[in-house]
Amino acid sequence: MRDLIILGLLVVTVLWALKAPWIGIMGWTLVSLMSPHAEFGYAAAAWPVATGYAAATILGLLFTQERQNPLVGAGPKWLLAFTVWICITLPFSLLYEASFGLWERSMKIYLMVFVTLALLDTKKKLTVFIWINVIAIGYFGVKGGVFTIATGGSYRVWGPGGFIQGNNEIALAVLSVTPLLRFLQMQQTKRWAIHAFTGAMLLCVATALGTQSRGALVGLVCMGTFFWVKGNRKLLSGAVILAIALLALPMMPDTWWDRMETIKTYEQDDSALGRINAWGMAWNLAKDRIFGGGFMIWTGSIFAIYGPEPDRVHAAHSIYFQVMGEHGFIGLGLWMAIGAATWFAARDLIKLGRAHPEHKWAADLGPMIQVSMISYASAGAFLSLSYYDLPYNVMIMATVAQRLVRAAVRDAARAPARPQMAVPPAAPREQGGPAGQPPPPPRRHV
After folding, report:
1. What SS3 class is residue 291?
2. CA 291 – CA 288 distance, rounded (Å)
3. Is the pTM for the entire model greater than 0.85?
């Protein structure tokens, strides 16, 4: 029955996407981040759902009139440059056949990023897109938070699969989407909705703690700090953050505290030493090869050449060293330029929203995008998630919002001033009668 329901929804939305391709973007985003067909179905887990949405969306894009230039804004241009660069580096991969599959996966993601940029041309579509991202990851944040509280944090929270299968990865995804939850909360007017978003955000924090990820703790501290910095009501937000820390941390079990203590004694932790060795290998490889080593370099044969400790083979576990090792210093520079452009676009949103109160939503979205980026940048320093969809979706949000607000402000400035209607002069007022009325007849004296 579940598979039949999923099949029916899939058929309806795919056909809808042919006529309104932006609907296909929502389906693609939900599937790529959440895989609901795998989460709730049985046989549906093996269906090529993402491929179906992508094909219908691209086909619809060819015929729709509701599309725009996807390369408006600095972020998309830097992403295009990075995409071209990793195509250049592919033939120079040390392990070409193994790299090709990962290159192909990245190309599909980047293609759909540009398709999304071409189709999100209204505030309504952008808002739905933000909702889809929040629902896709927030579901696991709420679910994991309930599990953490119910078990007292005695068990780790793990991800559903794909990019965010591990405990570290699901923690990063949940932390990155929590600021977007806050943005949606700021757009609500009903108290029950505001309280519901507050509960969801608290459960996402509980999920991050429940993963027992050291990177999640670093990301949580950075996110909380920037939440306070970017917030308008600093006294209230600071009190809430302090209350969460005082209430949540003492509830965590000894196993959680023992794992967090290894941050201070990393030189005795094999996992931490493996990461440091992998970072050293990426640095040595990037210095030796301008094109990097390709997507699949975290193997014994590559460590034997470039690893400080050749026998300690480890995944990159860092978004920065991952790109550096795979695509060289040029690739790292282009990739980080995408993030820098997104940050400045968000900053521009803040300025525009404050200067034009009718676009207050932009002033709400800008800082939350920056907080989301801080979560990804800090927790991602210990994870290999450089090609994960979510941070690129955040770039889309900042770029599209900036484009919409700037266009609205520009159109308002070009609009001719509305002519003032002439007010006819009032009739002269004579003594004894109100204005605009004939004077009373003269009094006769007898």
Report:
1. coil
2. 9
3. yes
